[in-house]
Amino acid sequence: MKDIFFRKEILKRPGPLKKHYDVVIVGGGSHGLATAYYLAIHHGITDVAILEKNYIGSGAAGRNTTIIRSNYRTPEGAAFYTQSVKLYEKLSADLDFNMMFSQHGHFTLAHSDRSLVVQNERAEVNKLLGIDSRVIDRQEVKKLCPQINIGEDVTWPIQGALYHPPGGIIRHDAVVWGYAKQAGRRGAEIHQGVEVTGFDVRNGKVYGVKTNQGDISAGVVLSATAGWSTPVAALAGVPLPLTGSILQAFVTEPVKPFLDKIIVSAQMHIYCSQTDRGEFLIGAEVEPYPTYSNKGTFPFIEYACRHILELFPQLHATKILRHWTGLCDMSPDYSPIIGETEVDGFLVDCGWGTYGFKAAPITGVTLAELIATGKTPKLIEPFKLERFYDDNLVSELAAAAVSH
Ligand code: PYC
Description:
Layout: E1 20-26, H1 30-43, E2 48-52, E3 67-68, H2 75-89, H3 91-95, E4 106-110, H4 113-128, E5 134-137, H5 138-144, E6 160-164, E7 168-169, H6 172-185, E8 189-192, E9 196-202, E10 205-211, E11 214-223, H7 229-235, E12 243-252, E13 262-265, E14 270-274, E15 280-284, H8 298-311, E16 320-330, E17 337-340, E18 346-350, H9 360-373, H10 387-390
């Protein structure tokens, strides 16, 4: 690993891999690092190795849209993400790392009567759970976001929106570095450039991990590998009901502060926000074909620009600066899969589709509790892999991303 991946004030270069760890976490993204941090601070478990085949934050944690919100459609999802938002609100102080979390509000625009019905249902579920979320009409949309075009001269005029005031954006790299710094300070070893090549599974139990730098034994193994979850879990003989797709996004050149709300359009399948650097971050729905390729496409750029310019015609001459893709592991009910598998000691944290980053803190807290106590916390009970065998799905399609 090159020195740029180690900043001595944040991350120490670890020694060689030891022969044994109490816990091995595969994947150095926000979830894996958060789990290591909460294992240390909540349970005193520090004999932990995090194995990352690339560099920390190189996967979904560094390729998402940085949106934090809890306005989910199902009671299970809403309760879970509410706890995540609460943890994010105090994360800068907890990790002593400036995350630049700006909570200026999140709009899910409705362009049809049907969409208003869906947003009203979401608002009702949210209200019952104490989440600040309500449906507003187009005049209030304009009042809260004067820059948006509420005219009739567009393909889908705005009729209203689900407004979620606590929704915000955060500096995603800082989340990764903050968890890495504090987990590392408490004894967790973060090994970058270490690729997992197999697992030692015997008689239905995991005993260790095979890597490109030797084999190690482990008490518990957690796979927190986002878009790579299917091939990684397959190495342990665990099939997962996931499809891999890509989500593309781009940022424009920076412009003066102009938009402080996050705007999602349920009908047009697009979203946009303005980053603290002044760039417009714009994206669309996941691509409708399964792939592991990380190549961006021109049709996506054309689609996203066409729709975003209907909402913000002022951006017509703004240049695109960079464009990227992220791998999304979509589950059949659009809810995550968290916890135990049929292989004893082998846990998974996957099925996050396009909404994993916003769940990092609460996933870390609950997985750390499961690893430390052997008991599944109530908050993640609905998200067990078993639900696909028991037919207890948690259908989050209506609020999962930009797909409705
Ligand atoms: O879940 O908020 C979300 C989201 C926006 C873009 C992709 N996912």
